[in-house]
Write the structure tokens for this entry.
Amino acid sequence: MSELDEVAAPVLSFDLTTQPWIPVLRQDGAQDELSLRQVFAQAGSLRRLVGDLPTQEFSLIRLLLAVVHDALDGPRDVEHWAELWADDDCLAPVERYLDEHRDRFALFDEKAPFFQVAGLHTAKGEVFSLNRIVADVPNGAPFFSSRMPAVDRLTYAEAARWVIHAHAYDTSGIKTGVVGDDRVKGGRVYPLGVGWAGNLGGVLAEGRTLRETLLLNLVAPSDTPGLSEWEGGDDRPAWRREPCGPGAGPLRRPTGVRDLYTWQTRRLLLHADGEGVHGVVLGYGDPLTARNMHGCEPMTAWRRSKAQEKKHGEPVVYMPREHDPARSAWRGIGSLIAGRSEATQGADAASYLPPRVFEWISRLVTDGELEPGFLVRARIIGAQYGTQQSVIDEVVDDHVSMAVVLLHQRKREFAEQAISAATDADDAVTSLGDLATNLARAAGTESEGPRAAARDSGFAVLGTHYRAWLAALDGSGDPYELRSEWQRQVHRTVGRLGDRLIDQAGDAAWQGRIIAVKGGTEWLNSSLANRWFRRRLDKGLDHSRPSDELLSADSAPAVAATATKGHA
């Protein structure tokens, strides 16, 4: 290289420990970008992280957790965690830790660029568009419309965030092979699955500050039920391991959460100049199957998979329980706070397992390290993939606030009533949807649209009420009486929504028409549809009204009961 070339190609530098790149939300609502050092130094005064996408925020939190776990070498147990929780300066050792490992947090480095592979290249020397690491949606429509139709450049800070996101949530599909990867066939590597976090229905416990959030999710595996399937016990994050080569490393399981949270699912290298990052080389990295990883991964719920058991010939297989974009967090409260249910073998194995991070918090509140009324925000974050996992269709981001008494192992009645209250709402909305269907049938019109609209309306209204009710379930009152109050509220609310549907049904539904029912026919009009609706609502919310009113409902005309069997 000539002297002129050296001047024209300055050495790039971006130190993640000192340069701002992590977006944060301050307590006053202001947004900022901070370096790793600043994030940990100011964690007690920050509200939370804010990523370019919620999935980016989740992957950044896991990176910070790996740093804290490693810097503090813990928590070792509940007692150690309690000492950290009580110490406002518990994160101070992170500064010395970042000093010690500063060289491995360089975004650009000749030997070990952060979360990248030095010298990574394809046989033809191709450099690809940054679209490959900036998450997008189908039909070529990026989440950030200002970057249409392609991402030409990123700042160093943006690129650092998307590198971490790629390891966590990169799509599957055929990728161009890199030199040195023995999985390459004909210049390509065929689909090996999405980034590790893309398999999960991500669950995060948020406190009032970023410091509280980090500590609440800082599990002690030895004191957390089910977190036992670690190999070797030598738990280290990626930056304390030898830099990755272009191909897959030795096939292994994670050695702990520090290893898992920084698992290198991809091999990539940024291409940059003095103005920013303009391209990337991206390939597959270390594979990691999601099957039966419930003893390793604490930040997701799990479901038993009969299909996987049959496929692999194993007696019990658990897979991550992914989020349904159409189902709000409060409706799935049971998957977060259901009582401990250890995996067993054979037919008696539990159908679902709760997130281990919430079992950890359960241990903390049961042991008295957290007050029962302490509020946490259960945050759910996940990606839904489409077209053979080659694109991200949707990103799920929702939350529900609750007192940790719902996780108390010796006060299970609070969790039971919270779960039952969500079921009350679900059943009531089903009744509302049935009313909309029957009104449409009475008018002789299409019913799927009205039913879906009625359900959406019901869940939207009840969701607001349920979140407020749940936050007040803090252990200070009688959970059974609070449940009864909730049922009365649901009865009133859904009853009014039903009144509105009947008012809007029109003359055709009021006049009605003959419909087929089991055992014959029936004249269905809005009046009969309303009777069926009220009967189902009364029966489902059996604590919502005095017993004499329930008795009156039970003595409704026999014809309505008969018709209900066929259509309500």
